[in-house]
Every structure is written in structure tokens, then in C-alpha cells.
Amino acid sequence: MKAQILVIGNEILNGKTLDTNSKVLAKELTKLGLDIQQIVVISDNQKTIISYLDKALTNAEFIFITGGLGPTSDDVTKQTLNDYFGYDLSMNQEVLAHIKSMFKNRYNSPINEQNIKQAMLPKQARIFINEYGTASGMWFKKNNSHCISLPGVPHEMKHLLIGQIVPTIKSEFNLPQNHIRTVNTIGLGESNIADRLTHWEKNLHPKISVAYLPDLGKVRIRVSTSDKDFQNAQLHINRAIEQLLPLIQDIYYGQDDRPIENVVAELLTEKSLTISCAESYTGGAIANQITSIPGASAYFKGGLVVYNNDMKTDLLGIPKSIIQKLGPANETIVEQMALGTQRRFETDIALATSGNAGPTQGDINVPVGTVFIGLAIMKKVETFEFKMNGPRKQVIERSLNKINELLFHHLK
Fold first, then answer.
1. Full-model pTM
2. Strand partners, 210
3. Rounded mean pLDDT of 146-168?
């Protein structure tokens, strides 16, 4: 079945808010077996919404709308949809009770007329109560087409979609579901991986599709098939994965949505190893990533941001003479930073970064994009030099991926 996604929001159009809802919708709906034709972003304007619906409902069986359901006067989507489908607004007592309960028990705030109006809903529509907010989901129908309106707040939309809408579609529509497995790799580019897997791809079952999804030093290999027979689909995918893994053992780190930093965290925990870091151009990004994972206190002792050269001396014990002679960004400096951090925090492993993330040359003695990483493990220390392309943010993100790659291979 064909589907379209409509994102409503003036704040998205003017660049103030990033649209993440369409990504979540597209991912979940694709897994359901729906064929996503297009994703459109429009303003919360009655004429614009009607113009879109006139075209979309003749071309797709499902229209998914997100946004425009707030309580203020600039949110016109609910009224527009109600009028367009010829429904009647009425007070939904179940939703009203839910909203009152939220304001009393969760918000600890008095309820006003604007909030109460959130319970005024199309009587003929199917209503899905929003557990995390006041804007309910609404399901409209016209001929053989279905229009499902969801709130724009990302976590509310996601919970409503996955918790209620997806199960409803599964139970009422016999769709050939898409079965997807994702294999994660790091350290080798997309084209090189594809070249390595040419023979594997040519010998796959005809129903199996493969896609390569690159992301700053990492490549996800998506293996998928569409089939109403679950067991048959799983058989084909499992066979494809079994044949794939021996070909990528040197770059493989896991499957599906597990980030490499989580895999590294598990290895540190399993091996009862501790880690610390000293950062220059990454500015605390390593420590932030490590501590964003629950349970990091078991292995992470601490980190230092030694951006100023004097701090490399005062906190890590690197002689000023070495820094003055060699400059702050080179393999010798990151080696000394890693060892100094290891001593200071008394950890099994220590990381260090120094380099020029750009965007300008500044007073760093190496070209923009040249970075150095130091890795001290037990009594051994290694240093690495890399050329990272892209703007400053990408240089830092690429560096994090490279650090996790190095840690993964050493720990594995």
C-alpha cells in the first residue's frame, strides 16, 4: 500500500526546529510494509493543508500527518481536518478526564480553557489517547484512504505511533511486512565494502535487497526482504547474514541499532577495565559520550580538557620545553598526554587527543583536519595521525568514531 507523510509546522519551515518525526515515521512505516511515496513539509495553514489532501488522497491509501495539534490559535490542523472530512467536533469525555489527570498529577498546574479544548475531537474519527501529552491521535477515513493525524512533539508522536497506531495497522491490514536486519561496520569506506561483497550480493536470494548506509567512518549494511510469510522471510535474511559475516569480520562490530560506543562499554565492563581521557580539540566530547551510557561509572574514572598548553604541563606533567619545541599537536604530545592521564587517574586505559579541527589554521602547527590520538593500554602506548575532512563538528564526530574503532579492536 502507498503512503505519504505530511509534516506540519511553521517552525520547521523557517529552520528554527529540526524535523525528526518524518524519519521515525518513515522507518516504522517501512517496516510495516508500506510504500512511502513522499515526505512533505507545509505550514499550518488551512488552504495549504486542504490543497495537499486533495492530491494525496487520490494517490495513497495512507496519509500520516504530524504537527499542528497544539492548543493555541495558530494550530489549525484539527479543525481543518474535521471540516475537510465532514466530521463533527464534540467533547470526548475520556480524553478530557485524561487531560485533567495530567494537569493535576503530572504538571501540578491549573487547567485552562485552551487545554480543555484539546478534548474537543471529531466524533466520527477514531481517537488514540496520547499518554504523554494533551493532543490526541486521530484517524480519519475517506473512501479507501486513511488519514492519521499525530502530535508534533517528537516523543509524544513516537510513543503514539509505536504503541497504538502500528499495532492497529498490523491487526487490521494484511501487509507484506518488510523484514530488516542491519549489520554495522567501521573503518572501511562504502565503495570498498561494496567491492568486497560483489560476489555475495550476486548470489543472494532474489527477494533480498541490500543497501549501504555510510556515516562518518561507519557503514551500515541493511539487508531486507518483503514477505507475508514471516518464517520464510527470516530464513532468507538469516542465510544472507550468515554468508556475510565471515567476509567482514575485520570491520564488523554488531547488528541493528547498537552504537559502537555501547559495544565498547560492554567490553570494558566484561573485562573489568577502567578508562580516562585527556582532550584538546575534542573539548570534552569523549567524556560526554562515555558518560551518556548508563553504568559508565563502573569503568570511567574521569577526564580532563587541556586546551591550553600550560594545562598540559600543570595537569599532565608534560615538560614545557617539549611543547615549545614540537608544538601542541603531534604524536609525541598525545603520547605524553595519554601516559599523564593514565598516571593521574590510575586507569588501565587512557585516551588523548590533540590536533587542528579548524575551521581556520589558528596557532596550531598542523594543517586543518590533521588530528592525533593517543591510546595507552596497560604499559603500552600507541599514537595515531589522521586526516579528518569536513567542518569542525564532523572532524570531532569522525574522531569519536575512530577512537571507538581503536578501542573496539584492542579490547576484542
1. 0.74
2. 223
3. 96
